[in-house]
Amino acid sequence: MVPSVRLYIGGREIKGGGYRHTFKIGVTTVKYVFTDDSGNSADFFFRVKVRDVQPPTITCPKVDPVVSTDREVDVSWVQPTVTDNSGKPVTVVSNVSPGKFYWGRYKIVYDARDEAGNRASCSFTIHVQPHKCLISTHLSTELSAVTWLDSECSVHSSAKTRTISTCQPA
Asked: Where would one find coiled-coil regions in this protein (predicted)?
């Protein structure tokens, strides 16, 4: 009988030379069985532990400003893309969800956490703004205020005769 070595990784025999193996995250038992030319054999076991120390990858969307005549508007966006080297699910949470927003700027932050506790985050800004109000050319150049009320824009002049012009969004 010819001496031999057999290799088992995770309970499966690995055949062929070179014995190269990529281990997955977790614990894997490796077993060598040595057999001499007389048929005597001995087993050798060890465990390989691979820890996940790499954070997930998260990419936030690019978001254009939202322009609306209404102070309150429904805003939605594409969810961030998230991947992890483990191939396992990643928990993703955000400080704000899509929904109703008022005029203003909002910082949206997404946090991703993999099963090993590694974290990554990304953020973007939602800018909800009113339509620009077109100002009539017949108004005085001395404007005192341009205001929005509900979905109408009012332009107030500070000229001697008070002129109020209401305009719709451009």
From this structure: none
User: Domain of 29?
Assistant: 4-50
Instruction: Report helix, strand or coil for 142.
Output: coil
Identify whether residues 106 and 162 lie together within a single domain: no
User: Rounded to whole angstroms, how far apart are CA atoms 119 and 91?
Assistant: 10
Give tens-digit pLDDT for 146-158.
Answer: 555 555 666 555 5
Total tally of structural domains belonging to the chain: 3
Q: Decide if 5 contacts 33 (C-beta within 8 A).
A: yes
Six-digit token string for 121: 């985050």
